[in-house]
């Protein structure tokens, strides 16, 4: 399966034209999921190593698992970056309206009554990448705890829209995982997702709708998760610096570690500035 042999079976903006921005937006997500098996396989290896503490191979197995996760993320992030070519930011608003949900949307304050289904109003969240299980899987494996706030509650609510098998597996991983050190890949994924939101929605020069398609706050929600991973990376880096000598932090992977260490505080400061700017723009409408 690759991008060129994928096709939509329903569309809103330009029919089933596979060259449309709507098709690109959807099919890029599908191709990203194509590589998710590497995340599952890597997580399974990592958990096996954590379980078999008496095995002489446990460290190498654990490292193999981390490497497999890293390689899968490289492929996923590479495909994700193709979004810019396959789906144009200025075209997103043309079909975004049709993928909005009902839950937490001001246009449906009381929900919607579906005739013949229920006499009570129902509320469902809209189409959103937050329904996918890839990032929650690695979050759970790496024991990344989100801050306790209303934005995180929305993140948890998205769990209800996943297949039962996904929900059960994610919960199991969350229960047995002990933590790992492959944070940069998650930061890259979440950072690119925020970039999409900024370029496809917040910079389009139109009156901003306060909610995303899934019903989460359009400005604050993604930065809630991104800032948390940046804070965790900063804490881990400080621990490594306190634990290891300056001499040991030279050459090979250590050089990449030091590069990331210098980048994290800059990324966090930039993110906070962007959130402040776009929140102010939204409030002044």
From TrEMBL:
Gene Ontology terms, MF aspect: heme binding; indoleamine 2,3-dioxygenase activity; metal ion binding
GO annotation terms (biological process): L-tryptophan catabolic process to kynurenine
Keyword Oxidoreductase: yes
Catalytic activity: L-tryptophan + O2 = N-formyl-L-kynurenine
InterPro entries: Indolamine_dOase, Trp/Indoleamine_2_3_dOase-like
Top-level taxonomic group: Eukaryota
Enzyme Commission identifier(s): 1.13.11.52
Enzyme class: oxidoreductase
This protein's record includes keyword Heme: yes
Keywords linked to the UniProt accession: Dioxygenase, Heme, Iron, Metal-binding, Oxidoreductase
Family under the similarity heading: Belongs to the indoleamine 2,3-dioxygenase family.
Task performed by this protein: Produces N-formyl-kynurenine through the oxidation of tryptophan.
PANTHER family: INDOLEAMINE 2,3-DIOXYGENASE
Name of protein: Indoleamine 2,3-dioxygenase
Native organism: Orbilia oligospora (Nematode-trapping fungus)
